[in-house]
Amino acid sequence: MALMDGKVGIVTGVANDRSIAWGIAKALHREGARITLSYQSSRLLKRIELLAAKINADFIEVDATDPEGMVRLATKAGHLGGIDFFVHAMAYADREALNGRFIDTKPEAFSEAMRISCYSLIEMVQVLESHLKPEASVLTLSFEGARRTFQNYNLMGAAKAALEASVRYLAVDLGNKNVRINALSAGAMRTVAGSAIGSARFTYQWLEKNTPLGRNPLLDEVGNSGLYLLSALSRGVTGEVHHADCGYNTVGMVCPKHDAPA
Ligand SMILES: NC(=O)c1ccc[n+]([C@@H]2O[C@H](COP(=O)([O-])OP(=O)(O)OC[C@H]3O[C@@H](n4cnc5c(N)ncnc54)[C@H](O)[C@@H]3O)[C@@H](O)[C@H]2O)c1
User: Which residue of 37, 118, 203, 220 lies most exposed, with the fewest beta carbons within 10 A?
Assistant: First the structure.
């Protein structure tokens, strides 16, 4: 019997086959889960149709800022007869704010980033609350920029810090229903969202050199870490921020071994 046999759930945030949400959806599918993908807008529909077909998923449109999207999300969970897992994998900030000085952040950009990258988790859990089955597991995606500074990550760092704090508070509320929630803090990945950060390529290459494993994580590796947090393997884990970053979050002083000739 596969790990997720009989489990049903919704995965948000697939934009293409490089999306972290896609890596998680593939791992869930491999282990027998039945998946509904949610996508942001009709602009992504053609791509979603092709990807959904690969994992026998159906799909719904949910923009985090659209009240009708929230209704569609709850309605879908109801039609599924309740859900065993939910993946929140979305973030957005104005490109200008992801370049230069954090001190120059404008209130509009700050609110928008917080709304889409953090509050959307709270709102989605709110509308799904009555549809989360006992022992269900919720997962969101974070980055180490929540705890330490990264060049140009700026207001997204503040949004991720708020997201990680929200996970801890939601864990208390959901724990009363025997539902878990965790954050997966992924290393640098070459995705659309990742490339929106100023000097993304430099950050990616720098991390590649300076993680204990001497590389950034692969999509399948992050997908499998997501699977762990969404499955019964992590039954005793909630309110946690789990790193799938080739160990970068543990590094204090960089060891030059990866620069050394073999
Ligand atoms: N790429 C990285 O290096 C990295 C590292 C750690 C964490 N993350 C996080 O992983 C998550 C997924 O990002 P990704 O890197 O896979 O990039 P991605 O571009 O593939 O996915 C981002 C998703 O957010 C969705 N989105 C943006 N605004 C939305 C809105 N208003 N409503 C609904 N959906 C919306 C996009 O449609 C897209 O599907 C994000 O939370 C991101 O911050 C990314």
Answer: 220
How are strands ordered across the β-sheet holding 241-244? Answer: 58-61, 34-39, 8-12, 83-88, 132-142, 180-186, 241-244
Parallel, antiparallel, or unpaired for β 180-186 and 132-142? parallel
Asked if residue 194 has its Cβ within 6 Å of ligand 1, the reply is: yes
Looking at ligand 1, which residue's alpha carbon is closest to its atom 37? 40
User: Helix or strand or coil: residue 110?
Assistant: helix
Active-site annotation holder among 160, 209, 228, 248: 160
Ordered by start, the domain boundaries in the chain are: 8-258
Pick the CATH number of 8-258 from 3.40.190.10, 1.20.1560.10, 3.40.50.720, 3.55.40.20: 3.40.50.720
Model pTM above 0.85: yes
* Predicted pLDDT at 89: 98
Say if ligand 1 is within 6 A of residue 94 CB. no
- pLDDT score, position 112: 98
pLDDT at 111: 98
